[in-house]
């Protein structure tokens, strides 16, 4: 059992990764989780969502939520520049896949890491919760933080957001219509 778990972890950490920048730090996501990278375009804000959900974009007719990982990691919101882009990812959610976008300051490169190159994340000093990291990959004299994109973009968190919005929507539906009648003067002649 332990050997199977280690083999699964090794398979999920070794391979090719797309690296991108958020708030001056380089992060990486397994290339197999990345569907595409699109140019930053109009994001439609969605009311009553957490600050780390910037809104939604239209990707070939599909509604795709966009996450600002900087905000999720406790950093300032990403500033939009000409290099800003959205990394479209597929997150495993039980038996189905959820398509989500990650707002990035810029995309850097595709890099390959072997299992031997990936270091364990330190239990301190990272801006990212330790359970979000698969490890640290060396890039020159620095490291990039390799994200476990399935945990960072957990479908459970998105479902919790959706569930928390349902009571508000139901309450709004139950409110009586407070608008004045269009034809309030209907009974008056000559008006």
Q: In DSSP terms, counting alpha (H) and pi (I) runs of 4 or more, how many helices? A: 4
Described by its quaternary structure, the protein is single chain
Number of domains in the coordinates?
Answer: 1
What integer value in Å does the Rg equal? 22 Å
Overview of the molecule:
This protein has 191 residues and is of the alpha+beta class. The protein has a single domain, classed as CheA-289, Domain 4 (OB fold (Dihydrolipoamide Acetyltransferase, E2P), Beta Barrel). The chain is 21% helix and 38% strand. The chain contains 4 helices and 10 strands. β1 (15-22) and β2 (25-30) form a beta hairpin.
SSE layout and pairings?
Layout lengths: L1 H12 L1 E8 L2 E6 L3 E6 L13 E7 L2 E6 L1 H4 L12 E9 L2 E9 L1 E8 L19 E7 L2 E6 L1 H4 L2 H20 L17
Parallel strand pairs: 2-10, 5-7
Antiparallel strand pairs: 1-2, 1-8, 3-6, 4-5, 6-7, 9-10
Main attributes?
single chain, five-stranded mixed β-sheet, alpha+beta, about 40% strand, globular, OB fold (Dihydrolipoamide Acetyltransferase, E2P)
Task: Give a quick summary of the entry.
With 191 residues, this protein is α+β, with helices and mostly antiparallel strands.
């Amino acid at each position: 059992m332990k050997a199977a778990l280690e083999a699964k972890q090794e398979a999920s950490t070794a391979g090719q990764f797309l690296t991108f920048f958020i708030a001056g730090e380089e992060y990486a996501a397994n290339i197999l989780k990345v569907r595409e990278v699109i140019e930053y375009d109009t994001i439609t804000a969605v009311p009553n969502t957490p600050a780390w959900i910037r809104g939604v974009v239209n990707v070939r007719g599909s509604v795709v939520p966009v996450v600002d990982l900087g905000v999720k990691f406790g950093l300032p919101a990403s500033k939009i520049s000409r290099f800003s882009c959205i990394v479209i990812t597929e997150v495993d959610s039980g038996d189905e896949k959820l398509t989500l976008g990650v707002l990035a300051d810029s995309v850097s490169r595709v890099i390959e890491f072997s299992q031997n190159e990936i270091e364990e994340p330190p239990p301190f000093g990272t801006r990212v919760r330790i359970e979000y990291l698969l490890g640290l990959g060396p890039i020159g004299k620095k490291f990039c933080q390799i994200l476990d994109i399935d945990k960072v973009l957990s479908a459970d968190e998105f479902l919790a957001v959706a569930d928390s919005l349902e009571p508000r929507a139901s309450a709004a539906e139950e409110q009586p219509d407070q608008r004045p009648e269009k034809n309030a003067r209907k009974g008056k002649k000559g008006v």
